[in-house]
């Protein structure tokens, strides 16, 4: 499926990325990260317009996050009414979101991406305020899109022996390490906001 979708990138680039990112945020299993890396590589070779690709993927991901959050937000009262083990799991998820909500949502977007789609539903179902969710989700999705596409972009240049591109790869690695440090700092210092 990945090869088939990647073959559609030159013709449908931004729309394909938007649709894939949107569906991925709803927990539909699609190879969105692979598509973003391939799109970044095509942007790096000049075949596609990189800023337009970034905008398409970012808007699709943000819309998918908000859709999943809204669906779960409406189902929250039903989850409250259930009993037994499910109620206990829901209460644990609520406690986690209460203590580390916005920073957990932010980090799940770009650093711990497998947790991203699930965190949309947990945040909505546990009653996180929509403004706090958006403030954490939208910047996190932007970082995710930029890091994935940036990797593809740099790989399209970095293996040609281009000293300038290799230097840019080093700068990006340093920036990513800085982002990891910032995420660690935010998690430990500000990881206990209220919902």
UniProtKB/TrEMBL annotation:
Presence of keyword Transmembrane: yes
Membrane protein topology class: Multi-pass membrane protein
Residue ranges of every copy of the VTT domain listed in the record: 30-153
Matches recorded under Pfam families: VTT_dom (PF09335)
Protein name listed in UniProt: VTT domain-containing protein
Matching InterPro entries: DedA_domain, VTT_dom
Keywords attached to this entry: Cell membrane, Membrane, Transmembrane, Transmembrane helix
UniProt entry tagged with the keyword Cell membrane: yes
Highest taxon of source: Bacteria
Residue intervals passing through the bilayer: 50-72, 165-183
Subcellular location as annotated: Cell membrane
A GO CC term attached to the entry: plasma membrane
């Amino acid at each position: 499926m990945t090869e088939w979708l990647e073959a559609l990138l030159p013709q449908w680039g931004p729309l394909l990325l938007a649709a894939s990112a949107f569906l991925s945020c709803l927990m539909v299993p699609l190879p969105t990260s692979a598509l973003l890396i391939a799109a970044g590589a095509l942007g790096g070779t000049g075949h596609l317009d990189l800023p337009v690709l970034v905008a398409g993927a970012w808007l699709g991901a943000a819309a998918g996050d908000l859709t999943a959050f809204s669906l779960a937000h409406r189902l929250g009262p039903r989850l409250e009414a259930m009993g037994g083990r499910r109620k206990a799991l829901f209460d644990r998820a609520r406690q986690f979101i209460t203590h580390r909500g916005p920073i957990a949502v932010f980090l799940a977007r770009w650093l711990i991406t497998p947790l991203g789609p699930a965190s949309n539903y947990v945040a909505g179902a546990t009653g996180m305020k929509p403004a706090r969710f958006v403030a954490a989700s939208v910047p996190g999705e932007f970082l995710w899109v930029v890091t994935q596409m940036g990797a593809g972009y740099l790989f399209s240049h970095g293996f040609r022996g281009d000293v300038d591109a290799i230097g840019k790869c080093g700068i990006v690695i340093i920036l990513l390490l800085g982002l990891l440090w910032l995420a660690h700092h935010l998690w430990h210092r500000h990881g206990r906001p209220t919902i």
